[in-house]
Amino acid sequence: MKKEDLPKIIPAFPLSNFIIFPKTTVPLNIFEPRYIDMINDSMKSNKLIGMIQPKNSNNTNPVPELHEVGCLGKITSFRETDDGRYLIELKGLIRFQNTKEINTENKYRTLEVKFNKFYQDLDNKKEELKFSDLELIFKDLKLLFEKKGFIINWKALEKQSLDDTINALAMASPFSLEEKQILLEAENLDVRKNKISQILKTYSFDNFDNTTIQ
After folding, report:
1. What are the extents of the domains in the chain?
2. Angle CA 22–110–113, to nearest 5
3. N or C: which end of the chain has fewer CB within 10 A?
4. Which helix (H) or strand (E) holds 19?
């Protein structure tokens, strides 16, 4: 997508503890009526929706405040199930800055956005990272995933490019909403790698051994 084709107003899908990065693709199961409407409207136009996190995942407010940065995604696959759900795949294109919310007649939320801080997301070049830089991070991340009961296909990840791998792990990680937002807002992959390392240092792996499931 070219800069000049980016929309100024986008439908917003606020999802807690969920982030999508540019150049990554994620599956989504859509079942709420307002988001069914959103996908229908999007499929009729440019197939674009904005993924953005609410600021507090425990907030019971039906209209929670949103973070400032999200990621624009394009629907690349669409299927309707027998029970009326939509199964879609969303490909991240470019991060955006949420400037203000627009009042519309739609049941879903709509944002006015800017992209100027994130034009580098549209570049196709791969970022150079040494695998040796990541081995310790992967080791600690693997331990954290396993302690939290997350199952990751590490062999499949090893076949991907390093930038795809870092972004996939950041998206799937058992980090908090705020930690995932920090990773989304990281300027580039090298900064994101360092942020993952810093976040991992705050986790005490020994503590996971002492937890019991009630």
Report:
1. 3-122, 131-206
2. 50
3. C
4. none
Q: Could you tell me which of 152, 96, 161, 155 has the C-alpha nearest to residue 131?
A: 161
Single-letter residue type at 123: D
Predicted model pTM: 0.84
- How far is residue 11 CA from its own chain's centroid? 16
Looking at 103-174, which runs of residues are DSSP E strands? 109-114
Closest CA to 71 of 123, 19, 9: 19
- Indicate if the pLDDT at residue 172 is higher than 50: yes
Say how many Å lie between the first and final Cα of the chain, rounded: 49
Beta carbons of 123 and 111 less than 8 angstroms apart: no
Domain 3-122 architecture: Roll (2.30)
pLDDT in tens, 10-52: 999 999 888 999 988 999 999 999 999 999 999 999 999 999 9
What pLDDT digit, counting tens, does each position of 128-149 carry? 666 666 677 777 888 888 888 8
- Strand 25-30 and strand 9-14: the pairing is unpaired
Nearest-angstrom CA–CA distance, 41 and 138: 40
Least confident of 14-18, 149-153, 209-213: 209-213
